[in-house]
Amino acid sequence: MQEVQQKLHMASANLLFLNLGTNRPNIMPSVIKIKSASDYSALLSLIRPDITGPEELPKTIIFTNSIQKTLEILRFLHDNLLDSCKPYLDIFHVLCSANSKTEVLDRFQQSHTKVFIATEVEGIRANIPDIELVIQFGVPLSLEVWTQQAGQAGWSPDV
């Protein structure tokens, strides 16, 4: 703090230091063992296997490390969720156009999309406070990437 203050030539009298910490009670990390890298069945138990319609889908981001996995997970969810839930699923990856990414995020923010599968957190620059579930499917590329992804669930205004 003092180093930043000195480099920016800021007087202490003009500063207010507010440390809110990083404790977010609404974020609960957990690990689920899966049988293989293509065992997507664990996703159903996380997303709620007994849903009766799209209104019960939790607002969810599923992160994965490859575009191929985003497509496989989307296909799996299409095959295993109710037909009425299918329009509420989408994907978000580095090869999507900027317009497509904007549309997906807009739909997600407005809850027209409830679950999207993504390869990147960098393109997600939206403050979406009502995300209920963030899933990293597979081992994240780094601890920094995982921290950024988990942080997508930390926007809740109630915390």
Task: Walk me through this protein's architecture.
The protein is built from five helices and four strands. It is of the alpha/beta class. The chain has a four-stranded parallel beta sheet with strand order 2-3-1-4, with helices on both faces. It is elongated, with a radius of gyration of 18 Å. The two termini are 24 Å apart. The model has no long low-confidence stretch (mean pLDDT 81).
What's the shape? elongated
The number of distinct β-strands equals 4
How far apart the termini lie comes to 24 Å
Rounded radius of gyration (Å): 18 Å
Order of helices and strands: HHEHEHEEH
Largest sheet: 4 strands, parallel
Alpha-beta classification: alpha/beta
The main sheet orders its strands as: 2-3-1-4
Mean pLDDT: 81
Low-pLDDT regions: none
Total of helices: 5
**Strand fraction band?**
5-15%
The amount of helix comes to: 25-40%
Keywords:
single chain; 159 residues; alpha/beta; 4-stranded parallel beta sheet; 5 helices; 10% strand; elongated
Quick structural summary:
This protein is an alpha/beta fold.
What topology does this entry show?
Layout: H1 2-7, H2 41-47, E1 60-63, H3 67-80, E2 89-92, H4 98-109, E3 115-118, E4 133-136, H5 143-150
Parallel strand pairs: 1-3, 1-4, 2-3
